[in-house]
Amino acid sequence: MNTTTAETFAEARKKYKKQGQAVQVVKRLLQNRTAIVGMVVVGIIILIAIFAPLLTPYNPNTLDPSNAFAPMSLAHPLGCDNLGRDTLARIMYGARWSLALGLCAAGFGAVIGLVFGTIAGYYGGWVDSLIMRILDVLQAIPGNLLSIVIATVLGSGFINTVLALSIGGISGITRMLRARILSERSAEYLEAAASINCTTTRIMFGHLLPNTVSPVIVNITMGIGATIMQAAGLSYIGLGMPTSTPEWGAMLSSSRGFVSSYPLLLLWPGLAIAITVLAVNMIGDGLRDAMDPKLKR
């Protein structure tokens, strides 16, 4: 067997092993009842967000003063707010904004954290020290306070809110991945990749990152729920989405003046946030158990 054939066989074996591990993770995840419940709930919320125009005849931004504070009825199952807007319609359409904020902010922060963590762990030296010192500065400020400061400077809006929420989550992902890469940096498969003239970029992101990213995926999944709550918190204090937007945090903000007289206006968006975050965390817990090496036989 020549060298080229041996390398091809080694690559195929490695790919097959990765696929086998992925299948085992999926099987363990599907055996976790808690994770299945979480996936079903999140799936339902996503379907509601996508098909909201088909599920309700009302526009979430249409004002109808004659229906202001209308109670629950067949026409308006969850009643109406102070401007006569249908609450159920705003909850359904609000799922789009809240899920988008959580996914985009967590995803954007994860991408930056993965890149910085891979570079810091692979190169080490002054590059590692520089990145870590920058993260030290970011971590010196509490995450919620940092998001508030950034949102105050940038202003409200979807893009600005995503930026404000994502920056606070970069440090944790970067440090976690860096620690994993430092322990994996001297592995034999990396030396083999370098010996066949693989580029540095391919070694880092094609070989090293896929073999160290598993625990980070769990962290990112759990972070989506926390990001949804932070997004609602920013909107509640007027630094996230505008109050006219049918987003759950903005709905809480516009209804806080009626907490004593019409508490249901705050109950429905608060319940939607709680259910969504709980379901996402259930998926994260199941994913963590599925990827736990202690469960492998």
Verbal overview:
This protein has helices spanning 3-30, 33-50, 52-55, 87-123, 125-139, 143-154, 158-167, 170-184, 188-195, 200-208, 214-236, 248-255, 264-291. With 297 residues, the protein is mostly helical. It starts with a helix and ends in a 6-residue tail after the last helix. Residues 1-10 have low confidence and may be disordered.
Summary keywords:
single chain, 297 residues, mainly alpha, 13 helices, 72% helix, elongated
Q: In a nutshell, what does this entry contain?
A:
The chain has helices at 3-30, 33-50, 52-55, 87-123, 125-139, 143-154, 158-167, 170-184, 188-195, 200-208, 214-236, 248-255, 264-291. By secondary structure, the chain is mainly α. Helix 4 (87-123) crosses helix 7 (158-167), helix 4 crosses helix 11 and helix 9 (188-195) runs antiparallel to helix 10 (200-208).
